[in-house]
Design goal:
- The complex is a heterodimer of chains A (272) and B (342).
- Chain A is an alpha/beta fold and 272 residues long.
- Chain A contains 9 helices and 12 strands.
- In chain A, strand 11 and strand 12 form a beta hairpin.
- Chain B is built from 15 helices and no strands.
- Helices cover 75% and strands 0% of the residues of chain B.
- Chain B is globular, with a radius of gyration of 20 Å.
- The chains are: A alpha/beta (272), B mainly alpha (342).
- Chains A and B meet through helix 2 and strand 6 of A and helix 10 and helix 11 of B.
């Protein structure tokens, strides 16, 4: 796939994402109060945390959708210094529930991902269309390009959303709850596809997830947010502990060792 | 591509039919020949008399061309508003834009003195500019009121706001007319649609605004597709949605203002044509906008033919005909398209 260099090559060892002391307040309410986060190039980091912990807000800030002066650095460049178009060539976001425009075909939808490469007021080139077809092929969507997006099943749709993000040619993928709308089989399906693409294209993945077992099986590292702050960070076995989950999720769980990471099993609390 | 051809054919058919039919019917072949003669270096013997040629070039052609321009502009503005507001119901009339332009033109005539001259050509530049100011005021009011219902105003809120703004501005217009009774006659003849008296003068008056609107809107047709996924996603794709939105609202309002100042209030075109195009040719604004321009023009020019022939020798107001034709036509297209889709 044609991928134009986003800017000058960052020095080796420069992290894909570096967040230092991020504070975000929405409508006067503090959501994030001093978050630090580092994601190495090629790494998969999953942010977990109870509802309202600020996971989506953190992802939005990293994606450049919230003002965060000086707190966020992408591949060595301060995010605030990037033009929106240039940022879109580096970072692609799959929203939690992306808007499905009525009547839009899969091809047209994935073509939207080429927006940062199409000149303002211009139209897409054959190279853009070719890039889209290549991405559709990679995601087993080759026969779908004429289909209307709204008529696709949940799993197929999620792959189309991924395809749009990939067509963006960005090396950093932000996934906000990529599996929340899917059944268990399709959840695994989508995460496998993401992991495969990550290895093939050297992508960096920063995701938020609710399913802790799944999150632990795919992430290299995990970050637990609670009340706007990082309360734990490390490998999945370090973060997914019964104590941490009891404290911050107020959940009663058993953590069972699994082949790819700890498996978190909810257990009904014993009433005294 | 085939839709572009279909659109151009529709415009040509409307042109020939519109010029041929009237109190004196002329053979379409001769009319087509006479139209070709307008191009430099073309001389075809059409078999028409001097007088008939004058009917073609001085009476009917400007009227048909103005109909094409106004219809195209209204349909283009409607399609553009629908994309900008992500609202399938948006239309120059439902948003109150036309009412704003109407109030401003009435004010210009009543307070500006064009009424005393009994003609609108007394204020050639003032009318479109006043209409533009009025339409921008109206669309701003609708936008602000519609958004007051929540951070993301629902489609119904926006249209309700448009209806309220429309009623408010129309009331202002009525008040002005009551206070300046001498301007009632010119304002009403304008309100009923002035295609009947159109001359080349009117075409030249609308043309610069039409060209500006068309260029700005068509250049942004791809951006409108991106806006369809919402502001957040558009932003993460590298767009500045709010900036694009303001520019396109201004452009569509200028187009509406130009149309209204040329021909008065002609409803229904801005919602019917883009929807018909959408049902036939897909939902991408890259197709909808240019096709709305062409089919909107053809639609209005042909509607005008009906307006002036069906009750000949008197003419029906064209706005009545667009609504009478438009309603059932829209239902028909909706039904056929649904059958094809399922």
């Amino acid at each position: 796939m044609s991928r134009e260099p986003a800017s000058r090559e960052p020095a080796a060892g420069t992290p894909a994402v570096e967040v230092r002391g991020l504070h975000v307040a929405l409508g006067g309410t503090p959501i994030l109060t001093g978050v630090d986060l580092t994601v190495a190039v090629g790494e998969w980091v999953t942010v977990i945390g109870p509802n309202g912990a600020g996971k989506s807000t953190l992802l939005r800030a990293v994606g450049g959708l919230l003002p965060a002066p000086k707190a966020i650095t992408l591949f060595g460049t301060p995010s605030a210094a990037l033009r929106r178009r240039d940022r879109a060539r580096i970072v692609a976001t799959v929203a939690q529930s992306p808007v499905v425009p009525p009547g839009m075909s899969v091809l047209d939808y994935v073509l939207l991902g080429r927006t940062p490469y199409i000149p303002t007021l211009g139209r897409e080139s054959t190279a853009d269309v070719d890039a889209v077809h290549e991405v559709l092929g990679q995601l087993d969507l080759a026969g779908f390009h004429r289909r209307e997006l709204a008529t696709l099943s949940g799993g197929e749709r999620q792959r189309v959303f991924l395809a749009r993000a990939l067509a963006q040619g960005a090396t950093l993928l932000l996934l906000d709850e990529p599996t929340s709308a899917l059944d268990i089989g399709h959840q695994q399906d989508v995460l496998e596809v993401v992991d495969q693409l990550r290895r093939e294209h050297g992508l960096t993945v920063l995701a938020t997830m609710h399913d802790l077992s799944l999150a632990g099986e795919y992430a290299d590292r995990m970050v637990m947010l609670a009340a706007g702050q990082v309360v734990a960070a490390g490998t999945p076995p370090e973060v997914l502990t019964e104590e941490l989950l009891a404290t911050h999720y107020r959940a009663s769980v058993r953590v069972v060792p699994g082949a790819h990471g700890p498996l978190v099993v909810p257990v009904r609390p014993t009433r005294p | 591509m085939r839709w572009l051809v279909a659109g151009l054919v529709a415009v040509l058919v409307a042109l020939v039919v519109g010029v041929s039919l009237g109190p004196v019917s002329l053979p379409p072949g001769s009319v087509a020949a006479e139209l070709l003669n307008l191009f430099p270096g073309v001389h075809i013997d059409s078999g028409l008399t001097e007088r008939e040629i004058a009917i073609v070039t001085e009476l009917r052609l400007p009227r048909v061309v103005l109909g094409l321009l106004v219809g195209g502009l209204l349909a283009l503005a409607g399609g553009c508003y629908q994309g900008v507001f992500r609202n399938p119901l948006a239309d120059p009339y439902l948003l109150g834009v036309a009412a704003g332009a109407g109030l401003a033109v009435t004010a210009a005539i009543a307070l500006g003195g064009a009424g005393r001259q009994g003609t609108l050509s007394g204020l050639p530049m003032t009318i479109p500019l006043a209409a533009f100011a009025g339409s921008l005021l109206a669309v701003t009011m609708t936008y602000v009121l519609g958004a007051a219902g929540g951070r993301r105003g629902s489609p119904a809120m926006l249209i309700l706001a448009g209806v309220a703004v429309s009623a408010f501005l129309s009331a202002g217009q009525t008040y002005l007319l009551q206070r300046h009774a001498d301007s009632i006659q010119p304002v009403y003849s304008w309100l009923l649609g002035r295609l009947a008296t159109a001359g080349w003068h009117d075409v030249l008056l609308v043309l610069p605004y039409a060209a500006l609107t068309t260029i700005v809107v068509l250049l942004h047709r791809r951006e409108l597709d991106v806006l369809a996924v919402g502001d957040d996603e558009a932003r993460s794709l590298g767009l500045h949605p709010q900036r694009t939105r303001y520019l396109l609202i201004a452009a569509a309002s200028l187009g509406t203002a130009a149309a209204v100042s040329a021909t008065g209030l002609i409803g229904f075109v801005g919602i019917i044509v883009p929807h018909t195009v959408r049902l036939l040719a897909g939902s991408s604004y890259r197709v909808i906008l240019p096709m709305s321009l062409l089919f909107g023009g053809a639609f209005l020019a042909l509607t005008d033919v009906v307006a002036r022939t069906v009750a000949a020798p008197s003419e029906l107001p064209i706005g009545v005909v667009t609504a009478l034709l438009g309603g059932p036509f829209f239902v028909l297209v909706l039904r056929t398209a649904r059958r094809v889709l399922t």
